[in-house]
Amino acid sequence: MRIIDLHCYPNTQKWIDCQGPYVEALEKYWGRAWQAKTEEEVVAEFKEFGIEAMLVALDLTTTIKTPPCDNNYVAGMRDRHDTIIQAWAAIEPALGEAAIEEAKHAINDLNMIGFHFHPIMQHIRVDDKSFYPLWDEITQLKAPVMIDVGMTGMGAGTPGGLGAKTRNAHPASIDALAADFPDLTIIMSHPGYPWIDETTAVALHKGNVFWEMSGWSPKYLPDSLKKDIRSRLKDKVMFGSDYPSIPYKRILSEWDQMGYSDDMLEKFFHRNAESILGL
Questions:
Q1: Mean pLDDT along residues 89-110
Q2: Which listed residue, of 136, 147, 180, 198, carries a Cα 20 to 30 Å from 38's Cα?
Q3: Whole-number Å distance between alpha carbons of 212 and 273
């Protein structure tokens, strides 16, 4: 079966460095060291598990001011390896016109598929009206966006969460954005804990909103969502791992043990992504 992973990070030193003070918090949150690999080691892991990866860039220049794991770097890594089929660009909405120009560069020059936003890490709410010129430009570029919803391990357990506010990733912001930009394809990332029911409601109500389930052990999903995945959400949900957060051996095994039909798993692992993103 083809496996498209919508949400993979490069896991190289450049990506580790970009996260700055969050690395130590992540190690505590996941209970293991957060160590960089070489590009070749990352690609070998994708190949071992038959993963067709979509890399995610990361830019936190307006918050923690670290050097970004930038779009040129991630697009270059994609271009060097066949097992990496596409890449999501990162831009900082707070940069205004510069963010719009970077969006054009990512799509027109680098041929990236769309944009990933991390509201908690970037200290933004996506329904902030000051960012609407950016969403309008992205819509004109006909590029999808992937936006994190729910709790994050970034800063978890530290005093003040290193300044990050979890409420920024509430699905209500996605609901508003989808309503105001009906031609914008939006993919919510992660199950959206502790607002899983509200995230489900947004996915069901907005025809331009879809959902990938990265960064979460599937066996711990609530029963209501497990049921919805094989019924009401069967054409909306897609696979993501949040690599390197959860080992592929574990997450693929757990999805296989969920008891879904082969047809449902085909939709989940590749057919929905092919249809929604034109892969």
A1: 97
A2: 147
A3: 9
Longest dimension (CA), the chain: 48
- What's the CA angle centered on 47, arms 43 and 52, to 5 degrees? 85
- Domain residue ranges in the chain: 3-277
Is pLDDT of 151 > 90? no
Angle at 92 between CA 89 and CA 96, to 5 degrees: 120
Please provide residue 86's backbone torsions phi and psi, each rounded to the nearest 5 degrees: -165, 180
User: pLDDT tens digits for 53-95?
Assistant: 999 999 999 999 999 999 999 999 999 999 999 999 999 999 9
Starting at the edge strand found earlier in the chain, the sheet holding 186-189 runs 3-8, 51-56, 84-90, 114-117, 145-148, 186-189, 209-212, 237-238
Predicted TM-score (pTM) of this structure: 0.96
Helix/strand/coil (H, E, C) string of 94-159?
HHCHHHHHHHHHHHHHCCCCEEEECHHHHCCCCCCHHHHHHHHHHHHCCCCEEEECCCCCCCCCCH
Query: What is the rounded CA–CA span in Å between residue 221 and residue 223?
Result: 6
Question: Could you say which architecture CATH assigns to the domain 3-277?
Answer: Alpha-Beta Barrel (3.20)
The token duo for 216 is: 């979460």
Q: What is the mean pLDDT of the chain?
A: 94
Q: Among 273, 207, 199, which residue's Cα sits nearest to residue 237?
A: 273
